[in-house]
Amino acid sequence: MSSTVIRCERLTKYYGKSRGIEDLTFEVRPGQVYGFLGPNGAGKTTTIRCLLSMLRSTSGRAFLFDEEVGVDGRELRRRIGYVPGDVKLFEKQTGRWTLDYIAGLRGGPGPAEAEICERLEFDPTRRVKELSKGNKQKLALVIALMHEPELLMLDEPTSGLDPLNQQVVFDILEERVAKGATVFLSSHILPEVERVCDRVAVIRDGRVVAEESVDDLLSKAIRTVHVTYAEPVPDAFVDGLRGVTSLERLGDTGLRATVTEDIGNTLLGILARPVADITVEHASLEEVFLQYYGHGEREGGAS
Fold this sequence. Notes:
The protein is α/β, with parallel strands linked by helices. It has two domains: 6-212, Rossmann fold (3-Layer(aba) Sandwich); 222-282, Alpha-Beta Plaits (2-Layer Sandwich), CATH 3.30.70.1560. It contains eleven helices and 14 strands. It has helices at residues 44-51, 74-77, 95-106, 113-119, 133-145, 163-178, 190-196, 214-219, 235-239, 263-270, 285-292, and strands at residues 6-15, 18-28, 33-37, 59-64, 67-68, 80-83, 151-155, 182-187, 199-204, 207-213, 223-229, 246-250, 254-259, 275-282. A six-stranded mixed β-sheet has the order 6-7-8-3-9-10, sandwiched between helices. A four-stranded antiparallel β-sheet has the order 2-1-4-5, covered by helices on one side. It has a four-stranded antiparallel β-sheet with strand order 12-13-11-14, covered by helices on one side. It is globular.
C-alpha cells in the first residue's frame, strides 16, 4: 500500500511571468478527506491540473500513489476520479453516449454507474446541450464515481447542485471513504469543508499559508450573530457581553455581534434575555483568510 496518495515537493507552475503556484509542499495519506481551500485565483485548479499531468510544472515534483507524475500517466489516471471546476462535455451527444465512451477509454463499464445515476436522479438519455448546469454537474460526477476509483480529485464538485443533491454527493463520498478511498477536495465553500474534510491546506496567492485539521480551522472562523430580543435591552446588558470582537446595536431590541472564538459561551451570554429571533452566519473562507493569513493584495495568476 502506498504511504501517501498525493505528495508535492516544492511544486511550482508559472504562466510566463504570471504566478500559478509556487513551492507547494504537502501530502495526503490514504483514506483522508483533504480539503484544498482558497479564494478564486489562489491556485487550486492549477495544482490539480499539474497533479493530473494536464499541465507540466515549472519546477518541483509531484507524486500519486508514490509514483512521480509524468507525461504518460494513463495507468495512474485509471485509479482516479476527477470532477473539473469547469465541466466540459460532448454537447451534441447524450449522457448515455458519454458514459459509454468514457467507460471504453477506461477499459470496461463502471460498476457503480447505474447506482450513481439513480441516486443523483440523472437521466442519461438526454443530449448534453439540453441539460441544465446542475444536470451537467451530475453527469461529471457520474463519470468520476462510476468506476469506483481509489482517489477522487474534486474541484468544486457540488457547483450548480441543489441542497438535496449536495447531500447525496456528501453521502456517497462518506461511503467511498469508509471503503478506503481518498478524497482531494478543492473548494472555497466552508460548509462543504466542515461537512466532509479531515484536514485542510489553505492556499493564497499560489502558496500554502497554513495546513491544519478542520477543527482548528473552524475555531478561527468568524461568525456574525444577529439577534432580536423580545423586549428592549438595557445598555448595561449590552456592555456586559463577552467574547465579541465588535458589537452594534440595531434599535432598542436588536444586536449584531462578531464572534471569532468560544461561540458557545458567547451565545449563552447573548441568550440571557428573552429572544424573538436569532441567526448565526459563518464568514466566507476568503474573509477568514484575510483575518488570519494576512491582507496582502492578490497577484495575478490562475485559479
